[in-house]
Amino acid sequence: MAKVKDKEKKNKKEVTEEVAKELDPNEVTNDELSQDKPDLEKEQKDKLNEAYNKISELEDKLIRQNADMINYRKRKEEETVKMLKYANENIVKDLLPIIDNFERAINMEHDLSDSESKLLEGIKMVYSHLENVMEKYEVKMIDGANKPFDPVYHNAVLSENVEGVEPGMVVEVLQKGYLLKDKVIRTAMVKVSA
User: For site-directed labelling of 36, which of 18, 81, 154, 180 has its Cα 20 to 30 A away?
Assistant: First the structure.
């Protein structure tokens, strides 16, 4: 039996020598692997932290983009509502001189013949319909007579000293101003007391 054990020892020794010859001296051994293990763990932790940071950065970017998109939608909705609210503004502005001319014609009703007074009645009817249309689209006249001057609603073109009237009051409206809903589309041209 001793011979069998010696033979086994020789075989193990030969196998170990053969394996050692086959191993490249540059290859990593188990001892070296156990020394590099903390470095590998550190590298893995660094990579994991880097991945978490990147995920966090991308989440923040996504949240910001969503917030920007929501704000953009709100701005667009507000612009659309405003555009629809004042869509008739240009048409109303074009109609204002026509209304002014109707009012001038109506104010000239002194000493008219029968045919002229009938014509004036027709003008008054057309003017009345035009006023109804303006009311329908929420166009309102700016009332300025005997009120304090307000540069938002009034355009002072003349000033005059008037007894019994305190300075800064509207004395006379020379041309009517108009509001479309809550927006001034034409200021009233007025004479103001000095």
Answer: 18
